Amino acid sequence: MSLGAQIWGDLGELVGTPWSVRNGRVVPEPEDVKLFPNDAVKLDAVYFYADLIGSTKLARDFSWQTAGKVIRAALRTASTIIKSYGGEIRSYDGDRVMAIFLEGARNTTAAECALKINYAMQYMVQPSLYAELPDLERAEFAVRMNMGIASGEAYVTRAGVRGTSDLVSIGRAPNVAAKLSDIRDAEYYYRTYITESVYQSLLDPSKFDNDGSDMWRRFVTEVGGERMITYRSSYTWGIV
C-alpha cells in the first residue's frame, strides 16, 4: 500500500466513523481505549498540570547534565506528590506532567496537591540542587513549577498509529488547565491557578489559612482567547 493510500484510508475511517462513547468511573489506561474505530471514555474529572518554569533558560545557560537533573528532580517530586493524593498521571510533555483526579473531593485534593508541589520546589528540590550544582544558585535560577487546575467533562481517546499511540483528553477542562499552567506573572509570585468552578468547590481547609484569610486571589485573565475569572495562590502547604 502506498503512503497516500494509507493516509486516505485512515482519514476515511477516522472521519467517517461515528464515536463509540462510554462513561468512565476510573481513568483509562491506553489499552482500555481502541485506536480504531473512534472510541472514547467520558470522564467528569479534575485536570491538573504542573509545568517547570524557566526550562528555556535552563537549556540555554546550563549543561545538559545540569538541566537534566533539574527537570528530573522537579518532575519526580511533583509526580510523587500527585500519586500520594490519588492523582492518575497520564502524560509527561518535556518539562511538565499532567494528571487526572476523579475520586472524592477532587477539587480540594488537586488544590492541596498543587500547594504541596509549590512547597517542595522551594524548600526541598531547590536546596538539594543548589547543594550539588552551585552554578544554579550563582545564576539565581529559581526551581519553580506553575500549576493549572480545571474541572469538567472530558473525553479520553487514543491518537497516533499502531505501536506508537497515546491517550489524549478532549474537552474544555484539560485545555484550560494546560493554559493556566502556562501563565507567568511578572513577579513570579503566584504558582497555582484554578478556575472559578474549582475555587467554588474547595473545602475550607484548602481555601482559608489558619488565620481565616483566603489563600486565593481573584484574577481575570485571557485563557485561549477568552476572558475568564480564575483564582491564583502563592501559598505553600508544608510536607513532613
TrEMBL record:
<dbReference type="GO" id="GO:0035556">
    <property type="term" value="P:intracellular signal transduction"/>
</dbReference>
<dbReference type="GO" id="GO:0009190">
    <property type="term" value="P:cyclic nucleotide biosynthetic process"/>
</dbReference>
<feature type="domain" description="Guanylate cyclase">
    <location>
        <begin position="46"/>
        <end position="181"/>
    </location>
</feature>
<protein>
    <recommendedName>
        <fullName>Guanylate cyclase domain-containing protein</fullName>
    </recommendedName>
</protein>
<dbReference type="GO" id="GO:0004016">
    <property type="term" value="F:adenylate cyclase activity"/>
</dbReference>
<dbReference type="InterPro" id="IPR029787">
    <property type="entry name" value="Nucleotide_cyclase"/>
</dbReference>
<dbReference type="InterPro" id="IPR001054">
    <property type="entry name" value="A/G_cyclase"/>
</dbReference>
